[in-house]
Amino acid sequence: MRTYDAVVVGAGQAGLSASYHLRRLGLDHVVLDADRAPGGAWQHRWDSLTMHDVHGVAALPDADPPADQHARGQGRANVVVPAYFADYERTHDLPVVRPVEVGRVEDGPDGLLVVHAGDSSWTTRTLVNATGTWRRPFVPHYPGVESFRGEQWHTVAFPGSEHFRGRRVVVVGGGASAVQHLGELALVADTLWVTRRPPVWRTDDFTPDRGREAVALVEERVRRGLPPASVVGVTGLALRPQEQEAARLGAYDRHPMFTAVEPGGVRMPDGSLERADAILWATGFRPAVTHLAPLRLRSDLGGIQLDGTTAVADPRVQLVGYGPSASTIGANRAGRTAATAVRRYLSGASATRSRAASS
Fold first, then answer.
1. Within this chain, do residues 94 and 53 fall inside the same structural domain, yes or no?
2. Which residue from 82, 97, 88 is spatially nearest to 38, judged by alpha carbons?
3. Where would one find coiled-coil regions in this protein (predicted)?
4. pLDDT lower than 70: segments of the chain
5. Domain annotation covers residue 308
6. 165-189 tens-digit pLDDT
7. Considering the domain boundaries, does residue 194 fall inside one?
């Protein structure tokens, strides 16, 4: 059976960046992607999300970013970015295999790793995990939620604001997605925004220094083995020009989290019932790393402890698009760091085998 230098799991920004740098270093690898088409999580985002709405798409290594549509804010993000990724795969002849749904990664013979997907498997010396979070939407449980007669949606399946026209929508969550959803929904629906904690609004400009500070704080968490936190929790929220009308309509008047869900709405802490036709859970995602469970990478603190992109518990494993590298810019840097770490590990393993053979 063929043994790869590296198997990359996931072909989003982080996975493509890692693949590019692995190829540049001459390392034999394959990229396994669960989707049927290029584009990573971008291909699944809602149709009303345009390039004007996204926070920016960093250029992949040795490529320009999505140029005209991005600069003018035109085009659906779920079309423009996947087309950009597809062109990148073709241009750099990246070894992407799809659709491949990786089920588990486990130890193999002679210190190798075996990646399993259904009846197929790949043997590799190292693994670069680039699965992101999109496949693991998080919805907290509240009493009575099963009794709600209206619709419940999560950001992962948001159907667009027109679906909710003329209805009462409770938006749950204190992050950027909630702010963005409210910016659309308030123009066509009656909204109520609830969060567990008061949102932190950013009043100053988001400078590169602020960005580096935010990333450093998230890096510190994963370095200690804690679950990664949201960068927005550090940087704070800000309204974009297209959300000012929603603000004027009161969409960002935050209310405390409800205590229970009832058939016709949500029960607030003061005992009042807020009527609702729909609940939109903008409550985020969790890292999609359950397939790594056999490797026992988690620390006692609940996260995967990293040194750069290297799993402290198993230096054969690199994690990109995890924690501080979840942004497109961070994903690019992490891809390069991971590829370099793979080469370093392989060099060290080769030297160890040579010493063992000569002794």
1. yes
2. 82
3. none
4. 55-56, 67-74, 203-215, 217, 229-235, 328-329, 350-359
5. yes
6. 999 999 999 988 999 999 999 999 9
7. yes
